[in-house]
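Here is an idea for our session: we take a single protein and study its fold together. Once you have written the record down, we can walk along the chain together.
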Amino acid sequence: IKIKPFRAFIPKASYGGTVSTRQINSYSEEELQSIIDSNPDSFLNIILSERNNKSSSSEKFEKISSLFNESILSGLFVQSKEDSIYIYRQSNEEVSYTGIIAGASNENYQQDKIKKHEHTLAKREALFTKYLRITGFNAEPTLLIHSKNTDLEQIQSTVVESSPIHHFVSDDGLTHELWEISDMKTIEKILISFNKMECLYIADGHHRSASSSLLALESPEKESTQSVMALFMSEENITIHDYNRVVKNTDNISEIEILELLKNDFNFIENSENILEPKNKHEFCFYMNKKWNRIKLKKEFNSASSVVEQLDSQIITDHILSPIFKIKDLKNDDRVDFVPGNKGLGLLQSKVDEGKFDVAIAMYPVDVAEMKQIADEGLVMPPKSTFIEPKLRSGLTVYKF
């Protein structure tokens, strides 16, 4: 595995929290507008500057590029003086995530040494590639995971004892810290550690990885496009949450009939008016009409069963959504929606109690071993199988081509 130090553009001192943002899709439209109106230094003012204009995508992307260059000239972003590798830590009272930010090799991606577990859409790949080509920068790292590595852990532990170049608490209560490593001896140790690895796995950022690879193939002579900015983390240092389902019962199937149909494939373990959560794989909690039921799949899998077939997200589709509610296309059927497990099962229940949906289904989280096996076998997960943390900041480190 090859990784590359680079001279990142970083918000000027004490502006890390003012400039960098959460992932755009984590904001409501009202939140986005409020930040844009109240905070002229927010990176959202650059990347969303043209969102309401009817100009072409090329014109919008050119404007983004121009605004980012202006932010450099104004001193809002400052470039590292030397090629560096960065340590990033995100934490709260309950959990802490630490990883390395550097350039990931697009050649490794093309060699399938950076493995994927999701399908990408050609239309989105093309749009993202165009975005990168015209804007000329990566502003949000992909999240790549590797096996536990004690050498990297030791380097990170040593670095984080020093003062970070950025330290701030974001509006969601998370603490963010960034350190810069420009010492060549330390960088060389990091490069050697990665060089000994056989592969990496994409945890978050499949489309960003794919579009960066396409850009690299477009311009093989341009060295800077041969890398994509990534946050590298040990697989033990991420959290995979459950990704639960809420369903609209548009065919008005009676509660009695739904429960009888469930009994074809599931054993009923317990029921309660209080929230129940799955305790093991192949166990689900089903909420309808103010009552929770814990159910467990009757089917036993054997060595001939594929890893995808055994995923709880696939079991929900195969044994509940498809046979009972006739929902087969999770990407396009508006009768089903998804609620990440980090939001809590209370939110899942409230979506039903408020009448927005009729049924909620909670599942047990996918584990790293399943995700890696699917990637190793060249398979893909069903849509919305995993919700992975940490979620990365946009505009905290920017890789300019």
About this structure: The two ends are 21 Å apart (CA to CA). Residues 309 and 315 are 7 Å apart (CA to CA). The first strand starts at residue 3 and ends at 4. The chain has 13 helices and 21 strands.
